[in-house]
Amino acid sequence: MKRNKSKKIDKKQFKKMINYLKTPIGKKVLISIFVISIVAIAVITVSALTLQNY
After folding, report:
1. Keywords assigned by UniProt (predicted)?
2. Cα 19 → chain centroid
């Protein structure tokens, strides 16, 4: 019983998230998160390469 309730709540939250991401503000947030993740990966790879050279 408890698991079903939690799943229903999660689905509602997920639908709210999807609806939020469909809005222009949500798209901006999604793009910013995507850009930040790419930058983080780039920084990690660059630091790893510099450490290997030394």
Report:
1. Membrane, Transmembrane, Transmembrane helix
2. 16
